[in-house]
# Entry
Amino acid sequence: MPSPIIRTFSAHYREKYGHGVGKIPVDMGQPCPNRVHGGCIFCRPASFTPSYLNNTEDLAKQVSAGKDNLLRGRFKKYFAYFQQETCTAVAVEQLLPALELLLADADCIGLILSTRPDYVSEQLLKRLAELVKWTGKECLFELGLQTIHERSLQWLNRHHSFADFQDAVWRIKSVGCFEVGAHLIFGIPEETEADMLDSLRTVCELGVNALKLHHLQVIRDTPLQKLYRQGDVALFSLDAYIDFLLKALPVIPAEVTMHRLWATAHPGLLVAPRWNILTSHLSETLRQKMAAAGLHQGQAVKG
Ligand code: SF4
# Structure
């Protein structure tokens, strides 16, 4: 089978399993530890929380609501997706039984744990590896990094370093039964195109299996909105971001799964940029431009 122009999440898992696979967000209901420091300046979980998701309900009810509201019969198989907050900050004794319960559903093919690089304990890796090996299911750690540049990490109020990310990637990969992914944000003030591509190349060289790419978005009632109102933040236009992706995708190895190529948010909470374009149209525009330019993911990767 020829490599796709872009190895999207849907293309990758359709190729792997022969059918589509969805994601069902679930939430342990515990706040991210970075909130005691004010949280990352762009973050407001409500901007990406599905309207049906109620984190006071037990996980079985959350999954059932996800099947009704998200999968809607399009997909039977799914990943349980801990997208909200920092799930691995939950005590291992509380988290492990929850993960075991989710993996017991035959339709759940695995876990996606979105978390911070400084909240991946050895105890969790050891206990979770036993569970993953025993069930034979998948487990992807999605590490929020956003940028490799320390000045930008401080500006975003991340409260971790790039070294924390490197250390987490090495430790997760050394276990042998996990995949690891990274979140990156493009358009952080004072980062040049070279800085952004440097972040991308560096995380790829560390051997990540998956990427979530976002353009910087301003969400209502965040510290970033205040800076934006003061005129301190310039955002990507739609055309400029597509042009950037045309340079970024070729440097990403062809085997890396692209879970996301741009940020999305509830329209009522999104301040800027408001591109007013359907994601399906954006996707198609990008593909057409890649095809017209003879580009594909991985094209510029040496070796
Ligand atoms: S670490 Fe993640 S969940 Fe926590 S404040 Fe930052 S972006 Fe939000």
In short: The CA atoms of residues 152 and 188 lie 7 Å apart.
